[in-house]
C-alpha cells in the first residue's frame, strides 16, 4: 500500500509501505476513506516532535471502513464505517478510567502518526479498537466526520471546557486556524457575551466571523486594546492560545482579566516565558492539555443533528494519492487560504482492492 512517511525534519514522501495487519487481539485494520492533515503534522515535519521515529507513517485523523478485527474486538466488525480518533484508549489504566484518555498508560494516548504508523495511508492498524473508533451514521459525510477526529474535540475540551467558558463571558481566541475556528464554533454553545478572534490573516478572521466571532482583530494592531475597550479595561474572562508560539502565549496572559482563565491549546516547539512576577497576584488560572476525545460521541451526535458547522472549515479536497500536494497547500495557508484539507471522502472516493485479495486476512 501507499503511505506518507516521515524521514526527518523537512523530509517526507508518499511511498510504498508494508500493509498493516492485526497484531493484538484488540486491534482493527481500517481501509482509509477520508483523512486530513493537522497542524501537529507540520510541527513533526519541522522537527518540533523529536520522539517520532524515522520511517513513521504520519496522520492521526481519519474515517474509513473496518476490514479486519482481532478476536477481542466486540463493538465493530468488518464493513462498519467508523471515525478513527486521534487518541487511542486502553480503557483499563487509571487515566482511562477517569476519562483522561490522552494520558493512557496501557499502550494508548496519542500514538497514531506519533509512536506508531498513522492514518495518512491506504490502510491503518488501530490498537484498542473498541474504545478508539466510533461507528458513523450514514447521514454524516466523511468530510464532516473527519474533523471530529481531532480539531473539534481539541478545541472543545482543551479550549472551551478547560477554560470554563460560561454564559455572559468575554472570550478571546488567539489564532484563527482550524483549531481556533473550531474553538469559536464550540464556545458559542455556552452563550458567551462576545467572542473575539485574533489572527494575522484577513481571510481567517473573515472565516471566524462566519463561524460566530463577534469581533476580530489583526494581531499586529493592538488586539489587547480592543479587548480592554470591550470590557471596560477588565480583560477577557477566557483567553485561548491556538497558535503555539511564545508571542501568542504572552499576548494571552496580558489580555486575561484578574481571576480569568488562559487555556493553552497550541503545540509549542520552543520555550515560553511565564511572567509569574506579573501573574501571581492576579489569580489567573493557566491550563494546558492533550485532548482526551471523551467528547467525541457528543460532538458526533451534534454533527448528525446539524448543530456543528464542521463542513465550513474544509477549503480544499484532494484524492488520497495527492498527499504531497495537499501538504504543500496546507503548509502555505497564508498564500493558499487553506483551513482544513481533506483527502478522499465521497468527492474523491477511490476503488481499493479488497484486503482479502491483497494478503491473507
UniProtKB/TrEMBL annotation:
Residues 8-343 form the Enoyl reductase (ER) domain. This is Alcohol dehydrogenase. Keywords: Metal-binding, Oxidoreductase, Zinc. It holds the Pfam family ADH_zinc_N. GO terms for molecular function: oxidoreductase activity; zinc ion binding. It comes from the Bacteria. PANTHER family: NADP-DEPENDENT ISOPROPANOL DEHYDROGENASE, ZINC-TYPE ALCOHOL DEHYDROGENASE-LIKE. The keyword Zinc applies. Residues 1-20 are annotated as: Disordered. InterPro entries: ADH-like_C, ADH-like_N, ADH_Zn_CS, ER, GroES-like_sf, NAD(P)-bd_dom_sf. Its cofactor is Zn(2+). Its EC number is 1.1.1.-. The keyword Lipid biosynthesis does not apply. It is an enzyme of class 1 (oxidoreductase). Belongs to the zinc-containing alcohol dehydrogenase family.
Amino acid at each position: 500500500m501507499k503511505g506518507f512517511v516521515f524521514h526527518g525534519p523537512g523530509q517526507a514522501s508518499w511511498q510504498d509501505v508494508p500493509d498493516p495487519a492485526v497484531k493484538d487481539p484488540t486491534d482493527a485494520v481500517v481501509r482509509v476513506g477520508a483523512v486530513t492533515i493537522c497542524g501537529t503534522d507540520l510541527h513533526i515535519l519541522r522537527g518540533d516532535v523529536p520522539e517520532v521515529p524515522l520511517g513513521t507513517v504520519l496522520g492521526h485523523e481519519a474515517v474509513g471502513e473496518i476490514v479486519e478485527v482481532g478476536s477481542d474486538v466486540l463493538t465493530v466488525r468488518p464493513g462498519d464505517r467508523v471515525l478513527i480518533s486521534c487518541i487511542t484508549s486502553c480503557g483499563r489504566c487509571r487515566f482511562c478510567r477517569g476519562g483522561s484518555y490522552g494520558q493512557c498508560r496501557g499502550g494508548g494516548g496519542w500514538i497514531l502518526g506519533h509512536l506508531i504508523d498513522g492514518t495518512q495511508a491506504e490502510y491503518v492498524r488501530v490498537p484498542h479498537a473498541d474504545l478508539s473508533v466510533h461507528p458513523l451514521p450514514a447521514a454524516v459525510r466523511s468530510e464532516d466526520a473527519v474533523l471530529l477526529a481531532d480539531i473539534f474535540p481539541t478545541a472543545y475540551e482543551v479550549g472551551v471546557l478547560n477554560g470554563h467558558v460560561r454564559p455572559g463571558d468575554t472570550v478571546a481566541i488567539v489564532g484563527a486556524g482550524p483549531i481556533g475556528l473550531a474553538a469559536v464554533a464550540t464556545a458559542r454553545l455556552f452563550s458567551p457575551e462576545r467572542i473575539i478572534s485574533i489572527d494575522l490573516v484577513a481571510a481567517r478572521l473573515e472565516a471566524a466571523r462566519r463561524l460566530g466571532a463577534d469581533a476580530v482583530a489583526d494581531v499586529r494592531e493592538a488586539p489587547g486594546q480592543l479587548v480592554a475597550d470591550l470590557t471596560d479595561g477588565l480583560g477577557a474572562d477566557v483567553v485561548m492560545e491556538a497558535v503555539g508560539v511564545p508571542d501568542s502565549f504572552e499576548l494571552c496572559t496580558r489580555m486575561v482579566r484578574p481571576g480569568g482563565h488562559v487555556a493553552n491549546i497550541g503545540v509549542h516547539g520552543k520555550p515560553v516565558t511565564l511572567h509569574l512576577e506579573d501573574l501571581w497576584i492576579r489569580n489567573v488560572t493557566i491550563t494546558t492539555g492533550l485532548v482526551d476525545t471523551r467528547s467525541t460521541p457528543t460532538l458526533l451526535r451534534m454533527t448528525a443533528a446539524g448543530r456543528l458547522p464542521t463542513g465550513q472549515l474544509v477549503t480544499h479536497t484532494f484524492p488520497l494519492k495527492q498527499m504531497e500536494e495537499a501538504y504543500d497547500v496546507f503548509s502555505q495557508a497564508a498564500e493558499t487560504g487553506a483551513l482544513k484539507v481533506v483527502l478522499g471522502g465521497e468527492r474523491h472516493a477511490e476503488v481499493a482492492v479488497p484486503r482479502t485479495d491483497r494478503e491473507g486476512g
